Amino acid sequence: MAQNDSINSKHIVYAEGAGIGGYGSLNYENVFFSKGLFKLSARIGVGTYRVLDFQNRFNPDVIIPVALYGLFGKTHFAEFGFGQAISSTVHVNIENLQPDRRVNIHANFSVGYRYQRKTGGLFLRLSYSPLIEYYKTFRHWGGLSVGYVFKAKKK
Prior knowledge:
Layout lengths: L8 E10 L5 E12 L2 E11 L13 E12 L2 E17 L6 E18 L4 E8 L2 E3 L3 E3 L2 E10 L4
């Protein structure tokens, strides 16, 4: 754990508008490595695209963003990342005209700016996060994140 001595705040909870989790997502991120000005973190979240299906019933599309980020800086960070967006979406089954759920995986990349103080508190991120839907279609996308960084407990 010696490599993590310089991390005072490493647990992050945030909401992201747009980004890799659809129109909005709630996320948890953990900074698991730090060496000098370089840090690595991992993220998982849950988001949605639509909440009503084609029959106008509550049957939300669910998106689970998973990503790894490399960060460079002290309080103001350049951020680079990649990951997957796992989607579970509802479509019409043409045989019986009923809802049919499909699960797909999409690639994502991220380049952006992050504000994260060493002592915790306010977390901000602005990113360009293109998606490669179904590993075929490139979509320009971006996100804005606001959240809170928790101070790690000392051992």
